[in-house]
């Protein structure tokens, strides 16, 4: 498993290759382009090409080899809920996910109905974030299926954003990612469409992650996606979800405006140490208390890691990761 270039994850896990185009967002599919390239390079994993769904049993155990907690995007080269992927194989994927609670798995699909049906009678592990792609108005139906699922984090990826998406009704949604298309035949994304989604996120207090402009910049001019960057009105928006799940020693995420924290909590009590707590609310109150300052606290305490690292720039959004010691 390699480090991913995708800004909202850390690595990708691809136990399935190949897919079938099902919606407008698929037109310039990145997975298709990459698969063709890797096939031409004679990589055994991609020998069946893009049009054939191939299940890779030998890649199922990859996450078991990662010891440190990692954010893993599942199936960046396919769609886990593709009609030709049997439930028995998806079960195997989730068995690995259950065996590795230290990781967080991001699963994004355009086949929201299939995902919804798969989870009928199956529990969703707490280390799984479920998302649907919503690239245009037509694709908004997928959100209704996502909302009915009991995932810790439910997210929407509006990438490639192809039109003004109108109203998204973000109640029950924890995260929205927006991005423009890249590649030779990329379609243009208008700034107003992005601002519309950003405003809805603010209205519903949903973290907003602006990934990139893609091939067309904020000014509408075509140039390299690297030159176009990811500034929106001069600012980066890289917000991520807030989570508050202390059961089962899971990992927790918090996002607050103006500060980023890296918070690890030990659940032991110690009256001598202010700021030492197993309560998430307390955690947030410390964050508020030290808002705007620059501190580093409570590291490697009593076998658990307890630290608060604050940045005083106030410029961008902070990520918080909270680990409850075992
Ligand atoms: S669902 Fe995803 S992987 Fe499959 S064709 Fe569409 S964009 Fe490509």
Helix content: 10-25%
> What is the straight-line distance between the termini?
27 Å
Strand content: 15-25%
- Tell me the count of domains: 2
The small-molecule ligands in this entry are: iron/sulfur cluster
- The stretches of 5 or more residues where confidence is low (pLDDT under 50) are 243-280, 290-326
Classify the secondary structure makeup into a structural class: alpha/beta
Polypeptide structure, described:
The protein has 326 residues and is α/β, with parallel strands linked by helices. It folds into two domains: 11-252, no CATH class; 259-321, no CATH class. The protein has helices spanning 30-40, 87-99, 112-118, 141-147, 191-204, 225-228, 280-289, and strands at 11-13, 16-17, 54-55, 71-74, 104-109, 128-133, 153-158, 175-179, 208-212, 251-256, 261-264, 296-297, 307-310, 318-323. The strands form four sheets. Strands 1-4-5-6-7-8-9 form a seven-stranded parallel β-sheet. A three-stranded antiparallel β-sheet has the order 11-13-12, with no helix packed on it. The longest helix has 14 residues, at 191-204. The radius of gyration is 20 Å and the shape is globular. Residues 19, 21-22, 25-26, 29, 31-32, 78-79, 110 line the site of iron/sulfur cluster.
């Amino acid at each position: 498993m390699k480090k991913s270039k995708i800004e909202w994850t850390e690595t990708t896990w691809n136990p399935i290759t190949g897919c079938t185009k099902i919606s407008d967002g698929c037109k310039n599919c990145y997975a298709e382009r990459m698969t063709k390239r890797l096939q031409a390079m004679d990589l055994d994993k991609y020998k069946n090409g893009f049009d054939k769904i191939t299940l890779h049993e030998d890649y199922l155990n990859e996450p078991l080899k990662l010891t440190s907690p990692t954010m893993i995007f599942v199936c960046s080269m396919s769609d886990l809920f593709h009609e030709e992927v049997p439930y028995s194989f998806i079960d195997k994927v989730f068995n690995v996910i259950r065996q590795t609670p230290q990781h967080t798995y991001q699963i994004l699909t355009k086949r929201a109905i299939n995902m919804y049906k798969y989870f009928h009678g199956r529990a969703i592990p707490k280390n799984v974030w479920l998302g649907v792609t919503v690239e245009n108005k037509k694709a908004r139906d997928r959100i209704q299926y996502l909302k009915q699922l009991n995932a810790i984090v439910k997210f929407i990826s509006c990438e490639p954003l192809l039109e003004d998406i109108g109203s998204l009704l973000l109640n029950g949604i924890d995260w929205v990612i927006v991005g423009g298309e890249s590649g030779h035949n990329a379609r243009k994304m208008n700034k107003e469409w992005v601002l519309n989604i950003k405003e809805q996120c603010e209205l519903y207090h949903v973290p907003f992650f602006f990934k990139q402009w893609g091939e067309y910049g904020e000014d509408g001019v075509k140039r390299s996606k690297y030159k176009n960057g990811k500034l929106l009105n001069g600012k980066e928006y890289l917000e991520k979800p807030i989570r508050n799940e202390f059961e089962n020693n899971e990992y927790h995420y918090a996002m607050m405006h103006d500060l980023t924290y890296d918070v690890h909590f030990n659940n032991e009590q110690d009256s001598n140490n202010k700021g030492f707590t197993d309560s998430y609310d307390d955690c947030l109150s410390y964050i508020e208390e030290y808002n705007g300052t620059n501190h580093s606290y409570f590291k490697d305490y009593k076998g658990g890691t307890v630290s608060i690292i604050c940045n005083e720039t106030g410029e961008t959004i902070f990520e918080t990761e909270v680990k409850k010691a075992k």
